[in-house]
Write a structure and sequence with these properties.
Blueprint: E1 7-8, H1 9-16, H2 20-29, E2 36-37, E3 44-46, H3 51-62, H4 67-75, H5 79-110, E4 121-125, E5 128-138, H6 142-156, E6 167-170, H7 172-176, E7 179-186, E8 198-202, E9 205-213, H8 219-232, E10 235-237, E11 241-247, E12 259-268
Antiparallel strand pairs: 1-3, 2-3, 4-9, 5-7, 5-8, 6-7, 6-11, 9-12, 10-12, 11-12
Helix pairs in contact: 4-5
Protein name: MerR family transcriptional regulator
Pfam family, one: GyrI-like
InterPro entries: AraC_E-bd, DNA-bd_dom_put_sf, GyrI-like, MerR-type_HTH_dom, MerR_fam, Reg_factor_effector_dom_sf
């Protein structure tokens, strides 16, 4: 009587719900090597305790985990390292999902035929003194930089010392070249600097202002419509864009209640 060598590749494919072709590919890449390979027939045989490993590999590949990371995950004996490898990839997936969701929201807004109406106010803003943090930032680092800068301002000036909603001024080069000066600020009752914070005097300016309602996923659509309004009203853009955060993530977790005021410094074009 011949002793059973294990599960044939067909049987293993059945119990793991993986195709024979996939199992052969895992073998060739070294991800999942059969327990034995018959030297005469080249038949592959797997052991029952390899079923869970096969299913883990399959799940990781469904999540687009690179083969090198899959190999690290299944070969490491350190459960903490394994968890960190998986968590790192999940963070990348979540970031990609956020980018995809933002693109979908923007496309839906752009494709709405009745969404072209935009309330715009031409506003003369007087000179004002604020406490600000500024730096040259890459566009891909802008959100993280914004959060840390706002945390610093919030820590230095508790609610009782604030004189209005926070805001930001962003150089056009941030959007055109991918790197530019970002400034976040708070109007406060008694301005004073410290650390990265500086007391800044903003000059008086004329702004074309509109309000973006809701989450920031499609704020680029509002930017585009404001730009269209500025051009169609024979105005030129003069300086960095202004944002005022009337309500945002620091005020409420309900993104439907967020309100971001966008202001473009403008001047009237003279006919040629």
């Amino acid at each position: 009587m011949t002793l059973r060598k294990g599960l044939t590749i067909g049987e293993f494919a059945t119990v793991t719900r993986l195709s024979v072709r996939t199992l052969r590919r895992y073998h060739e890449s070294g991800l999942l090597v059969p327990a034995t390979v018959d030297p005469h027939t080249n038949y592959r045989y797997y052991l029952p305790d390899q079923i869970a490993t096969a299913q883990v590999i399959h799940r990781l590949r469904e999540l687009d985990v690179p083969l090198a990371e899959v190999r690290s995950i299944i070969t490491t004996g350190d459960p903490h390292q394994r968890a960190e490898l998986i968590a790192g990839h999940l963070r990348r997936l979540e970031a990609e999902l956020d980018r995809t969701r933002a693109a979908v929201v923007s496309l839906r807004q752009l494709l709405q035929p009745d969404a072209a109406t935009l309330d715009v106010e031409l506003r003369s803003v007087p000179a004002r003194t604020v406490v600000a943090i500024s730096a040259t930032v890459r566009i891909e680092d802008s959100l993280a930089w914004f959060d840390t800068a706002m945390d610093e301002l919030d820590a230095a000036f508790p609610p009782a010392e604030r004189a209005g909603p926070p805001g930001g001024r962003y150089a056009n080069e941030l959007f055109t070249d991918g790197v530019g000066v970002m400034t976040v600020f708070r109007p406060v009752r008694s301005p004073h600097g410290g650390g990265r914070m500086e007391v800044v005097e903003f000059p008086a300016t004329d702004l074309a202002v509109t309000v973006h309602a809701g989450p920031h996923d499609d704020i680029d659509v509002t930017y585009g419509r404001l730009g269209d309004w500025v051009v169609s009203h024979a105005l030129g853009i003069d300086g960095p864009v202004h944002e005022t955060y009337l309500a945002g993530p620091r005020d409420t977790g309900d993104a439907r209640r967020w309100r971001t005021e966008i202001g473009w410094p403008v001047f009237r074009l003279t006919p040629d």
